[in-house]
Queue: 2 jobs
Job 1
Amino acid sequence: MKTKTYAGISDEYAKLETSKIVFIPVPYDGTSTWQKGADKGPEAFLDASENMELYDIETESEVYQQGVYLADAVTENSSPEAMVEAVHAATKRFIKKNKFVTIFGGEHSISIGTIRAFNDMFPDLTVLQLDAHADLRKEYEGSKCNHACAVYEASQTTNLIQIGIRSMDVIETTVMDTEKTYFAHDMAIDDNWMDSAIDQMTDNVFITIDLDVFDPSIMPSTGTPEPGGLLWYETLEFLKQVFEEKNVVGFDIVELCPNKHDKSSDFLAAKLYYKMLSYKFIDEAIDDDFESNFDQSSGSKNSKYNEEDDY
């Protein structure tokens, strides 16, 4: 990776010891079956992030100040199974350091390793999958670590909730829990799907986002784009509600297949990642703002807080 720090942030906010957040790139594209290029996703993402404004208007915060450590990329590609084991080990190592661990692929098979690590470390885990595809095959093309199998293991070992599904093989109907699957065509006419999905989640939630969950009108640069996907603000509304009501323990984002002639998808991925961090750490940002105001007024609260004290 050319980038020395996430989003080009200063070393002050990029050290492992002081960072609350870890970012693990996984430039892997070993099992994709149509368009190749997801291995270039992390580099395109980091390049877009470095050219993105770091003040989030909605949350009035600069979440990078919580510290984001850019870990060494997981580059194991000798086999899908070896890659999954390497991702599992790297992810678990940083969770054990009490970091908020995030991973960027690469294609969706990397999530087998990330989900396995979070399931090892957090009890009663919900895996929230945002995806166009079910990815529930037990095995595909001779491997259980194929992108088409990305959440099969999660369906057996965690509370899997699937959002935005609109493409699958008939064999996957034998595995899928339809009570916890939100098909895109149903979501389009159901105003209650967000609350319903959240009600089915346990307290600890890991989010895996395949970028093809988005409609290709706003996210064309994926390996297997599918019409009829989610749009930007409805996705943010849902994610914000999940972060507010549940303990999101980490997330991964996969399947950015960059197009050198159109950078909009790279920036959508970069913005999505930053928005999710902003939602996760909004309370810390408020606390930091309070402490800053407290310090600047020589130990007394500023007028914004004094007004509240008058009541």
Job 2
Amino acid sequence: MCVTCGCGEGEVRIDGAAVQHDHVHEHVHADGTRHAHEHPHDHEHTHDAAPAHSHAPGVTPTRRVQIEQDILAKNKAYAQANRRLLSERGIFALNLVSSPGSGKTTLLCKTIELLKQQTVAVIEGDQQTSQDADRIRATGAQAIQINTGKGCHLDAHMVGHALAQLKLAEESLLMIENVGNLVCPAAFDLGEAHKVVILSVTEGEDKPIKYPDMFRAASLMLLNKTDLLPYLNYDVKAAIGYARRVNPEIKVIQVSATSGAGMDEWLDFLRAGVAQARAVRRH
């Protein structure tokens, strides 16, 4: 996982402002001994920039597992707090995950356009730039950008900061567009109702069995860019079969933001989720 890939060493910024981020660092002393420094923060979201730390170039397998467990336990606690906040306000939240270039942002923009009267807010995750958040704002929807620096995924603490800054309408729809990556985001609950994995027809049909954790964690797979199928040698049946091999319960919708194919079914899924979140809140 991210213990060895350098994730977390960079500065996290939300709409350009640096935030101090909860993380676990492994430090190495001159005598070669190691220990983890934990930096817990609550959700007051009034942090200054995090101090720089030097990381060990490698850790033992046992220590790596322990650090990963610590990271995921902390993330789970933040995710539960996010989920409680969203539930209390009747907000239906989705975590959109995919490879880079799958068409997430284009699909989001089209979705917002078609939803019309439904209030939508978006949390955008990228290592750098605010280009995707700018595209979302151009639709009239509220959006906030999280730049993860070297980080390869969003986590629940980052999302908690963003939730504190967003003016979320009650009984609305929140779409979290994760960093383009089919590995680490699978392990991190953000407090969402569902993970939605987006696989485009310009990628390999075998992505689900190459990255099974992501497809196993998702409730829904959107097979995107289907308008390109006449120009590609792509086996739709095989792609869906691979997804259901790792997750027999996964729902699949074939969509195209360009042609509009499948968008009605996707919008029905969103409206049903919003209605369910609203009913739970009012119960």
